[in-house]
Structures are given as structure tokens and as C-alpha cells.
Design goal:
Diaminopimelate Epimerase, Chain A, domain 1, 18-stranded mixed β-sheet, single chain, alpha+beta, 2 domains, 31% strand
């Protein structure tokens, strides 16, 4: 069960909501800003207690290559990368004056992530160039069955796996209502993800009133969570998936609405990097708020 914000946080744990898009929105993350002496088992316990992805700040392995190191845990495992926990942790460090305005290097298990801190304290984090591969048509029926939908709910496009950090399966639906009405079989979601090498299903649909905006939901596999309120790495993967489909045109930024079906409205902005930004595929940003202790 997720830890209630009304309960007091243990000493050293602070809580933020990331990608806030309305009252009660965003994805919660407990953060520990000084975790060098914390054993792995305690990090795992914190993630399990709060029921959300948790971020931990440590000294970098090599100070010449990174300014700070982050680790991420979910209730059942350690993660190589977590977009919203990275953004929330960076925002909290900046808010406390521990990261100054400018560009900084974050060591993660998935590699170096760049972060930009503005003079006003807003934060953006980098993701590498995405890659997209087709999901074999033989798996299509199992994916639709796991989501409890039919071909009538789909756009006439293939299902693809896409990733910047973790592989997500992009499922193009025919409208926002089809996204919001989903009621998956979660055991089947995990089974089909394992069969296609994915860490989560990411059904999405274009907002036909605003072609820059997409509605999406994230059903992760193997994390101990049924659904994620806001998933930065999945939104990043979606940007490159849209390029693959030929749907993005000349737009450089998309906005992803997620979490509404959970009562946690979230907004994620993903912007393509400039060609001059070597090693960066896109930038993730969104509103972060600190939760009451």
C-alpha cells in the first residue's frame, strides 16, 4: 500500500510530486539526499514502504566524470533509471541550494544524465537518442488481450518497442477515451511484457484538439506497481516512436497527459535536443512540488 502523505516521513526522507498537472497530480517520489551510508536493503525497504519509485543521492564514483550519483528503487527491484525520480531529486537539490544554476552531470546505472537548472529553479534532464523496433505481429493479439481491447480501439499502425533508457511498448489507440477506459489484466500485462522484452505497456492517443498533446497510460512490468501516474522515460520513448510513425512533423516538443485515470493528473514535456547537443536525444521537464512532511 502506498504511504499516505498525511503520515510523517522518517527522518532524512523528503517527498515530492513530479510532472504535476492538477490537484493531487504528478508521480510521488520519496527522496533521500544523503544516502552514502545507507545499505541497499534499507533503500529497498523505503521504496516498498511508500509504494513508489524512490531516489537516493550519493557521491559520484569518479568526481571527474559526474557531479552527483543517483540510485533508484521500486518496491521489488533496483532500477537503472527513473525519469521522474531524477527530475524530482534534481529539483530538490536545486531548491536547497545544493545544485547551482547551470548544467550538471548525474551518474546513474544507465549512464551519465545531464541536468539543466535554471536561474528560477526549474529543471530539465536529458535522455539519450531513442531507438525503435517493431514488435512481431504474432504478439499483437496477446497485447490487446492483456489490455482487454480489440482492433476497433486501435489505429492502423504497428505496435513497437521504443526506448531511451528502458524499453516500453507503444500501442497506438484511436482516441483519448480509449486510453482512459482501459482496464487491463495486470497478470497478463506482465506475461506479455516478458515475452516481448518490454518493461511496460504504454498505450497512447493523440488529443485531436491539440496535436502537440498525447494521452497515455503506463502499465509497468516487474516493479510491484500496476500503473504509473507519470513516466518520463516512457514519454521520451513516445517522442521517438512518433518520429518512427511519421506523426510528429516539424514539432520539437510534445506534451503527454498521464495519470488522469488514477486521479493523479500529470503533464510531461519532452523536447528534441539540438543537433549540436552531442549524446543527448531529448530533454524531459515538468512541474515539481514538495509534499508535506
Amino acid at each position: 500500500m502506498a504511504h499516505s502523505a498525511a503520515q510523517s516521513a522518517p527522518r532524512g526522507i523528503e517527498q515530492v510530486r513530479v510532472f504535476v498537472g492538477g490537484p493531487g497530480g504528478g508521480n510521488p517520489a520519496p527522496i533521500v539526499l544523503d544516502a552514502d551510508a545507507m545499505p541497499d536493503a534499507e533503500m529497498q525497504m523505503i521504496a516498498a514502504r511508500y509504494g513508489h519509485e524512490a531516489g537516493f543521492v550519493l557521491k559520484p564514483t569518479d568526481p571527474k566524470k559526474a557531479d552527483v550519483r543517483y540510485r533508484f528503487f521500486v518496491p521489488r527491484a533496483e532500477m537503472d533509471m527513473c525519469g521522474h525520480a531524477t527530475l524530482g531529486t534534481t529539483w530538490l537539490l536545486a531548491k536547497k541550494g545544493l545544485l547551482k544554476p547551470g548544467t550538471h552531470r548525474i551518474e546513474t546505472k544507465s549512464g551519465i544524465v545531464l541536468c539543466r537548472v535554471s536561474d528560477t529553479g526549474s529543471v530539465a534532464i536529458s535522455q539519450p537518442q531513442g531507438h525503435v523496433t517493431a514488435v512481431a505481429p504474432v504478439h499483437r493479439a496477446a497485447i490487446l488481450d492483456a489490455l482487454k481491447i480489440s482492433e476497433r480501439d486501435m489505429l492502423d499502425l504497428p505496435i513497437v518497442n521504443a526506448a531511451t533508457s528502458r524499453m516500453k511498448t507503444l500501442i497506438p489507440l484511436n482516441g483519448p477515451k480509449a486510453v482512459q477506459d482501459l482496464a487491463p489484466n495486470f497478470a497478463a500485462v506482465e506475461k506479455v511484457c516478458n515475452s516481448i522484452g518490454s518493461t511496460g505497456l504504454y498505450p497512447f492517443a493523440c488529443d485531436w484538439d491539440d496535436e502537440r498533446t498525447y494521452h497515455a497510460r503506463q502499465f509497468p512490468s516487474g516493479l510491484g506497481l500496476d500503473e504509473d501516474a507519470a513516466t518520463g522515460v516512457a514519454a521520451s520513448a513516445l517522442l521517438f516512436g512518433l518520429q518512427h510513425y511519421g506523426l510528429i512533423g516539424t514539432r520539437k516538443t510534445i506534451r503527454v497527459r498521464q495519470g488522469e485515470a488514477m486521479g493523479c493528473p500529470s503533464r510531461i514535456a519532452v523536447t528534441l535536443a539540438e543537433k549540436s547537443e552531442a549524446g543527448v536525444g531529448c530533454w524531459l521537464s515538468g512541474e515539481v512540488r514538495q509534499m508535506d512532511a
